[in-house]
Amino acid sequence: MKIAILSQKASLYSTQRLKAAGEKRGHEMQVIDYLRCYMNITAHNPKVIYSGEPLEGFDAIIPRIGASKTFYGTAVVRQFEIMGVFSANASQAISRSRDKLRCLQILARRGIGLPVTGFAHSTKDIEGLLDIVGGAPLVIKLLEGTQGIGVVLAETKQAATSVIEAFRGLDANILVQEFIKEAGGMDIRCFVVGDKVIAAMKRQGAPGEFRSNIHRGGSASKIKLTPEERSTAVRAAKAMGLRVAGVDILRSNHGPVVMEVNSSPGLEGIESATGVDVAGKIIEFLEKNSSTGSNRDRIQY
Predict the structure, then answer these.
(1) Cβ neighbours of residue 169 under 8 Å, at least 6 residues apart?
(2) Given its phi and psi angles, is residue 231 left (phi above 0), alpha (psi -120 to 50 degrees) or beta?
(3) Taking burial as the number of CB atoms within 10 A of a residue's CB, which of 50, 88, 179, 268 is the most buried?
(4) SS (H, E, C) 238-277
(5) Which residues are annotated as a binding site for Mn(2+)?
(6) Low-confidence ranges of the chain (pLDDT < 50)
(7) Domains and CATH numbers, the chain
């Protein structure tokens, strides 16, 4: 197979691992900076052009689209789909998961466990919003935040009001969520490929830190999932339409709740913590599905 990895940097761990895993299995792998691609959008001969040459003959692509580059990145993925190339994650699914509010609304519609979440536009409605979510402490999140940036723990209702007013003063969209105290600063990253959780790790926040992101000093270790947690992760990925996903779960008193569904989950932490060849599992998935993925799935938006 001829497989393209859409990544801004060939030096990134995840990109290198995917390239090496594909080459190990005998495939022709090419890393392509999707921001340097440009497109010829025509009805009969659509093309993606890179370094002056059309990208042709690819059987599959693996999108590694940065959160801040979602609009252009998904446009490139969509163009490949129009050309009949199978994508590890469909462009629409990537866009859907990147919109945190839309993601939560879709998960709620599917009956998947979530923390109590509130969303409002006007600062005049803060009191009602906080009443919906419940008592302090509360977690306030920027919709555009990543890797724990833009996530604030408000210890009191007054603090929550001040933070919301400050964010809204900057015209930033925010979510307010219940604080799952019993999680103890720990969450679970479930790595889903196809219809299975192929690896799972526990991420524990640094002392005094309620956010468990490894980028913020958290530690990672292998964990055994309950059947309910495994089912929740797979259902969440499917609800987004993602074939490859990192699903972040908290253990709450009322069962597993989904915090986020990531369409470009990193490989370094999960492979190091679990010893699972995640990159190899992704390549294996492409081998089994790139020739059988229906054209309808590839180009329906």
Answers:
(1) none
(2) alpha
(3) 88
(4) HHHCCCEEEEEEEEECCEEEEEEEECCCCCHHHHHHHCCC
(5) 248, 260, 262
(6) 294-296, 298-301
(7) 2-96 (3.40.50.20), 99-112+182-285 (3.30.470.20), 117-179 (3.30.1490.20)
**Binding-site residue positions for ATP:** 141, 178-179, 187, 211-213
Give the gyration radius of the chain's Cα atoms: 20
Dig out the tokens for 63 from the structure.
């999108």
Look up tokens 């603090």; give the residue: 159
Binding residues for Mg(2+), as ranges, are 248, 260, 262
Q: pLDDT of 218-274, one tens digit each? A: 788 999 999 999 999 999 999 999 999 999 999 999 899 999 999 999 999 999 999
DSSP SS3 for 173: coil
* Beta-sheet strands, E only, within 144-264: 151-154, 174-178, 186-193, 196-204, 219-222, 244-252, 255-262
Report helix, strand or coil for 115: coil
Angstrom distance (rounded) from CA 21 to CA 30: 12
